[in-house]
């Protein structure tokens, strides 16, 4: 085999390997179940009580 043929084969193997890894990463990303926190459990959302306290303090 010539050097050119060996280089082409190695290049094709690397390209196929990268495509397989890329496809596996996309599949894993789409299969991940995303969840959303409830508003009651979210520490960044102010509660209604906090809003009324702030409104009462301003008046």
Provide the residue-averaged pLDDT: 83
Low-confidence stretches: none
The portion of residues assigned to helices is: 55-70%
By secondary-structure content and strand pairing, the structural class works out as mainly alpha
Radius of gyration using CA atoms only: 28 Å
Q: What amount of the residues lies in strands?
A: under 5%
Number of distinct beta strands: 0
Q: Strand count, sense and closure of the main sheet?
A: none
Order of helices and strands: HH
N-to-C CA distance: 88 Å
Judging from the principal axes of the Cα atoms, what is the shape?
rod-shaped
Number of helices: 2
Short description:
The chain is mainly alpha-helical and 59 residues long. The chain has helices at 3-31, 48-58.
Explain this structure.
This protein has 59 residues and is mainly alpha-helical. It contains 2 helices and no strands. The N and C termini lie far apart (88 Å). The model has no long low-confidence stretch (mean pLDDT 83).
């Amino acid at each position: 085999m010539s050097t050119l043929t060996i280089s082409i084969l190695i290049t094709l193997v690397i390209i196929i390997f990268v495509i397989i890894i890329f496809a596996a990463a996309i599949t894993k990303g789409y299969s991940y179940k995303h969840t959303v926190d409830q508003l009651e459990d979210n520490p960044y959302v102010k509660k209604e009580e906090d809003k009324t306290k702030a409104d009462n303090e301003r008046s």
